[in-house]
Amino acid sequence: MACPKKFLNHPSLPASLTVNELPISFSPSVRSLGVTLDPTLSFQKHISNICKSAYLELRKISSVRHYLTTDATKTLVCSLVLSKIDYCNSLLAGLPKNLLDRLQRIQNNAARMVFKSSKYEHATPLLHSLHWLPITKRIEYKLSSLSFAVVSGSAPEYLSELLNLYTPSRQLRSAADTRLFRLPTVQTTTCGERSFAYQAPVTWNRLPLPLRHTDSLTTFKTNLKTHLFQRK
Questions:
Q1: CB within 8 Å of 27: residues ≥ 6 apart
Q2: Residues 175-195: tens digit of each pLDDT
Q3: pTM for the whole thing?
Protein backbone atom coordinates (compact mmCIF):
# COMPACT_ATOMS: atom_id res chain seq x y z
CA MET A 1 0.00 0.00 0.00
CA ALA A 2 1.38 3.39 -0.98
CA CYS A 3 1.38 6.16 1.59
CA PRO A 4 1.94 9.91 1.02
CA LYS A 5 5.56 10.78 1.72
CA LYS A 6 4.79 13.31 4.45
CA PHE A 7 2.96 10.61 6.43
CA LEU A 8 5.50 7.79 6.10
CA ASN A 9 7.33 8.68 9.33
CA HIS A 10 4.40 10.22 11.17
CA PRO A 11 4.50 9.05 14.84
CA SER A 12 0.75 8.43 15.00
CA LEU A 13 0.68 6.30 11.85
CA PRO A 14 0.69 2.54 12.47
CA ALA A 15 3.47 0.48 10.93
CA SER A 16 0.88 -1.47 8.96
CA LEU A 17 -2.83 -2.01 8.43
CA THR A 18 -4.59 -5.25 9.23
CA VAL A 19 -7.09 -6.69 6.77
CA ASN A 20 -8.67 -10.06 7.53
CA GLU A 21 -6.05 -10.52 10.24
CA LEU A 22 -3.26 -10.07 7.69
CA PRO A 23 -0.82 -7.13 8.11
CA ILE A 24 -0.34 -4.84 5.10
CA SER A 25 2.76 -2.66 5.39
CA PHE A 26 3.06 0.82 3.92
CA SER A 27 5.47 1.23 1.03
CA PRO A 28 7.11 4.31 -0.51
CA SER A 29 6.10 3.01 -3.95
CA VAL A 30 3.73 0.50 -5.53
CA ARG A 31 3.52 -1.12 -8.95
CA SER A 32 0.21 -1.04 -10.78
CA LEU A 33 -0.28 -2.38 -14.32
CA GLY A 34 3.45 -2.14 -14.93
CA VAL A 35 3.76 1.46 -13.70
CA THR A 36 5.67 2.28 -10.51
CA LEU A 37 3.82 4.92 -8.51
CA ASP A 38 5.30 6.98 -5.67
CA PRO A 39 3.55 9.30 -3.18
CA THR A 40 4.33 12.51 -5.10
CA LEU A 41 3.90 10.98 -8.59
CA SER A 42 7.44 12.01 -9.46
CA PHE A 43 7.85 8.80 -11.51
CA GLN A 44 11.57 8.82 -10.73
CA LYS A 45 11.60 5.15 -9.78
CA HIS A 46 9.37 4.28 -12.74
CA ILE A 47 11.80 5.93 -15.16
CA SER A 48 14.74 4.23 -13.43
CA ASN A 49 13.00 0.89 -13.96
CA ILE A 50 12.40 1.70 -17.63
CA CYS A 51 16.05 2.67 -18.10
CA LYS A 52 17.31 -0.48 -16.42
CA SER A 53 15.10 -2.74 -18.50
CA ALA A 54 15.69 -0.88 -21.78
CA TYR A 55 19.47 -0.83 -21.43
CA LEU A 56 19.40 -4.57 -20.71
CA GLU A 57 17.55 -5.15 -23.99
CA LEU A 58 19.97 -2.87 -25.85
CA ARG A 59 22.92 -4.87 -24.55
CA LYS A 60 21.28 -8.09 -25.74
CA ILE A 61 20.67 -6.65 -29.20
CA SER A 62 24.20 -5.24 -29.30
CA SER A 63 25.65 -8.70 -28.69
CA VAL A 64 24.10 -10.00 -31.93
CA ARG A 65 24.08 -6.75 -33.93
CA HIS A 66 26.73 -7.97 -36.39
CA TYR A 67 24.38 -10.77 -37.45
CA LEU A 68 21.44 -8.46 -38.09
CA THR A 69 20.38 -6.25 -40.96
CA THR A 70 19.45 -2.63 -40.35
CA ASP A 71 15.75 -3.39 -40.75
CA ALA A 72 15.91 -6.37 -38.39
CA THR A 73 17.72 -4.28 -35.78
CA LYS A 74 15.12 -1.54 -36.09
CA THR A 75 12.33 -4.08 -35.60
CA LEU A 76 13.98 -5.51 -32.49
CA VAL A 77 14.62 -2.07 -31.02
CA CYS A 78 11.02 -1.00 -31.62
CA SER A 79 9.55 -4.14 -30.07
CA LEU A 80 11.95 -4.58 -27.14
CA VAL A 81 13.12 -1.05 -26.28
CA LEU A 82 10.81 1.67 -27.59
CA SER A 83 7.77 -0.30 -26.46
CA LYS A 84 8.99 0.08 -22.87
CA ILE A 85 9.47 3.83 -23.31
CA ASP A 86 6.05 4.30 -24.91
CA TYR A 87 4.09 2.21 -22.41
CA CYS A 88 1.73 4.52 -20.49
CA ASN A 89 3.95 7.45 -21.50
CA SER A 90 1.07 9.93 -21.28
CA LEU A 91 1.64 9.73 -17.51
CA LEU A 92 5.03 11.35 -18.03
CA ALA A 93 3.65 14.61 -19.44
CA GLY A 94 4.95 17.64 -17.57
CA LEU A 95 7.85 15.85 -15.89
CA PRO A 96 11.14 17.75 -15.43
CA LYS A 97 13.48 17.77 -18.42
CA ASN A 98 16.23 15.93 -16.56
CA LEU A 99 13.98 12.88 -16.13
CA LEU A 100 12.78 12.82 -19.73
CA ASP A 101 16.37 13.28 -20.91
CA ARG A 102 17.19 9.88 -19.40
CA LEU A 103 14.66 8.29 -21.74
CA GLN A 104 15.91 10.39 -24.64
CA ARG A 105 19.43 9.05 -24.15
CA ILE A 106 18.07 5.51 -24.47
CA GLN A 107 16.34 6.37 -27.73
CA ASN A 108 19.48 8.11 -29.03
CA ASN A 109 21.59 5.05 -28.22
CA ALA A 110 19.03 2.82 -29.90
CA ALA A 111 19.14 4.93 -33.08
CA ARG A 112 22.94 4.78 -33.15
CA MET A 113 22.79 1.01 -32.76
CA VAL A 114 20.44 0.65 -35.72
CA PHE A 115 22.86 2.52 -37.99
CA LYS A 116 26.06 1.27 -36.29
CA SER A 117 26.97 4.88 -35.62
CA SER A 118 29.56 6.24 -33.23
CA LYS A 119 28.38 7.13 -29.75
CA TYR A 120 29.53 10.68 -30.49
CA GLU A 121 27.37 11.08 -33.60
CA HIS A 122 24.50 13.54 -33.28
CA ALA A 123 21.29 11.53 -32.86
CA THR A 124 18.70 13.97 -34.26
CA PRO A 125 19.38 13.19 -37.97
CA LEU A 126 19.27 9.48 -37.15
CA LEU A 127 15.89 9.83 -35.46
CA HIS A 128 14.56 11.65 -38.52
CA SER A 129 15.85 8.91 -40.81
CA LEU A 130 14.05 6.32 -38.69
CA HIS A 131 10.89 8.46 -38.49
CA TRP A 132 11.09 8.27 -34.69
CA LEU A 133 9.62 11.17 -32.77
CA PRO A 134 11.76 12.28 -29.79
CA ILE A 135 10.51 11.50 -26.30
CA THR A 136 8.62 14.71 -25.54
CA LYS A 137 6.82 14.57 -28.88
CA ARG A 138 5.99 10.89 -28.40
CA ILE A 139 4.21 11.93 -25.22
CA GLU A 140 2.35 14.67 -27.12
CA TYR A 141 1.44 12.13 -29.79
CA LYS A 142 -0.10 9.82 -27.20
CA LEU A 143 -2.00 12.62 -25.45
CA SER A 144 -3.34 13.96 -28.74
CA SER A 145 -4.41 10.51 -29.92
CA LEU A 146 -6.30 9.88 -26.69
CA SER A 147 -7.88 13.33 -26.94
CA PHE A 148 -9.03 12.59 -30.49
CA ALA A 149 -10.66 9.41 -29.23
CA VAL A 150 -12.58 11.48 -26.67
CA VAL A 151 -13.68 14.02 -29.30
CA SER A 152 -14.76 11.30 -31.72
CA GLY A 153 -16.65 9.40 -29.03
CA SER A 154 -14.53 6.25 -29.24
CA ALA A 155 -12.71 6.68 -25.92
CA PRO A 156 -13.65 4.65 -22.85
CA GLU A 157 -15.92 6.38 -20.37
CA TYR A 158 -13.24 6.75 -17.69
CA LEU A 159 -11.24 8.97 -20.09
CA SER A 160 -14.19 10.88 -21.50
CA GLU A 161 -15.24 11.86 -17.98
CA LEU A 162 -11.92 13.67 -17.48
CA LEU A 163 -12.29 16.05 -20.44
CA ASN A 164 -14.99 18.62 -21.22
CA LEU A 165 -15.46 20.18 -24.64
CA TYR A 166 -15.64 23.95 -24.71
CA THR A 167 -19.07 25.23 -25.71
CA PRO A 168 -19.22 28.95 -26.65
CA SER A 169 -21.99 30.96 -25.03
CA ARG A 170 -23.16 32.23 -28.43
CA GLN A 171 -22.97 31.04 -32.00
CA LEU A 172 -19.67 32.08 -33.55
CA ARG A 173 -19.19 32.92 -37.21
CA SER A 174 -15.93 31.03 -37.24
CA ALA A 175 -15.46 27.39 -36.30
CA ALA A 176 -12.04 28.22 -34.86
CA ASP A 177 -13.23 27.81 -31.29
CA THR A 178 -14.88 24.43 -31.79
CA ARG A 179 -13.38 21.11 -30.81
CA LEU A 180 -11.49 22.68 -27.93
CA PHE A 181 -11.33 21.36 -24.38
CA ARG A 182 -11.95 23.42 -21.28
CA LEU A 183 -8.82 23.81 -19.19
CA PRO A 184 -9.58 22.73 -15.62
CA THR A 185 -8.51 24.71 -12.57
CA VAL A 186 -5.79 22.88 -10.65
CA GLN A 187 -4.37 23.44 -7.19
CA THR A 188 -0.84 22.05 -7.58
CA THR A 189 1.85 22.02 -10.24
CA THR A 190 3.16 18.59 -9.22
CA CYS A 191 0.01 16.52 -9.57
CA GLY A 192 -2.64 18.92 -10.87
CA GLU A 193 -0.79 20.35 -13.86
CA ARG A 194 0.65 16.95 -14.73
CA SER A 195 -2.69 15.16 -14.70
CA PHE A 196 -4.29 13.87 -17.90
CA ALA A 197 -7.27 16.17 -17.28
CA TYR A 198 -4.90 19.16 -17.57
CA GLN A 199 -2.18 18.02 -19.98
CA ALA A 200 -4.56 16.62 -22.60
CA PRO A 201 -6.46 19.92 -23.10
CA VAL A 202 -3.19 21.90 -23.19
CA THR A 203 -1.74 19.59 -25.83
CA TRP A 204 -4.93 19.25 -27.88
CA ASN A 205 -5.91 22.94 -27.90
CA ARG A 206 -2.63 24.05 -29.45
CA LEU A 207 -2.96 21.70 -32.42
CA PRO A 208 -3.76 23.40 -35.76
CA LEU A 209 -7.47 23.75 -36.51
CA PRO A 210 -7.48 21.46 -39.59
CA LEU A 211 -5.80 18.73 -37.56
CA ARG A 212 -8.35 18.97 -34.74
CA HIS A 213 -11.16 18.64 -37.28
CA THR A 214 -9.85 15.48 -38.93
CA ASP A 215 -12.54 12.80 -39.19
CA SER A 216 -10.52 9.58 -39.39
CA LEU A 217 -8.25 8.35 -36.59
CA THR A 218 -5.82 6.88 -39.12
CA THR A 219 -5.60 10.18 -41.01
CA PHE A 220 -5.33 12.10 -37.74
CA LYS A 221 -2.37 10.02 -36.55
CA THR A 222 -0.59 10.35 -39.89
CA ASN A 223 -1.07 14.12 -40.04
CA LEU A 224 -0.25 14.49 -36.35
CA LYS A 225 3.09 12.75 -36.76
CA THR A 226 3.90 14.96 -39.75
CA HIS A 227 2.94 18.06 -37.76
CA LEU A 228 5.11 17.07 -34.80
CA PHE A 229 8.09 16.34 -37.06
CA GLN A 230 7.77 19.71 -38.78
CA ARG A 231 7.27 21.71 -35.60
CA LYS A 232 10.44 23.07 -34.08
A1: 1, 2, 3
A2: 555 688 888 887 776 677 888
A3: 0.85
